[in-house]
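<context>
A single protein, sequence plus fold
<entry> Chain with its tokenised backbone below
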Amino acid sequence: MHSPRIQSFISVSTDRIKILLGRINLSFFIKLKTRLSSYLEYKGLITQNTPERSISFSLYRKLAVCLLFLGIVLWTKDINTIPIPQPLILSHYEHPDISGIKYTFNNYESLYRVGKYAIGKFRAMVPNNQQIQNYVQETLALHNLKSISESRLSLGNPIPKGTTIEFFPPANIHNPRYKKDIRAFNYFMSMVDDSYAYITGVWAERGAGGSSSKHEGVDVAAKLGARIISPMDGVAWVRNINLGGRTVGIESENSLLLFCHMGKRFVKSGQKIKKGQVIGTVGMSGRTSGPHLHVSYGIRFPNGSLFGRHRYKWTDPMLWFYRQQYFSSSL
């Protein structure tokens, strides 16, 4: 059994032999035969009276093979420079111009975390455990096919430091609302200063790893200590909550955005906040299984929950995004 690179070399060489044979016509062999006969006659191996049939045809054949081999050697690149054939990713049938997400791993980084990020970017949805498992296996299989010169990766072993894996759109996960949902996903992910932040929970849906209780907000998973950026102008209110931990609320007209599970807070109650201002960092305060930012949206309501100077009724934060989009498009 030949190694993959030898097999690749043989395959390339075979294709080029076919091309060379296609370029060689009958006149080539006639000229070759005439010149060879003249050379043999010059060496005294044959005379003009020597019957043509007595000249072994195998000699012509051997010479032709030698010339073909020489042409292949001169024409073929060094085996180490031959590009490895790339498998066609299933998603390329759907979007031939699509490009993957390349990620270079450091020590002890989770393949699942980057997989969740990729699903969020490609499909704008929160995957369940089975979808994540299938996607990670799919990604590793494609990586192993593309990198035949490297050691194979598996789920049971950590990803070696410095390994670059390219993530493509999942073959079996689809979102018909992608074009609409991705704008909202990008909006909430932009609230943290982390290039690989991803949505891990939306309103009334926990996603993978969460509990079955109602979820009143949007969760943005990010690295511990990532900066939290205010998406609006308003007035800050600071509070500690049992479940939400260190919390900052930003009040704007009749609305309130809450930012929970913070590590550090850089604002005080009553302080005026500008859009784009850093208000704190991602942490793990309160009840949480990992570093993330929880965003809640409240509308002023007489019988609602008190926060700051007013009472609010909590609703889907996605409505805040669509509200902002509506007013910005009306300007």
User: Anything to note?
Assistant: The longest helix spans residues 4-23. DSSP finds eight helices and twelve strands in the chain. Confidence is low (pLDDT under 50) at residues 206-210. The two ends are 69 Å apart (CA to CA).
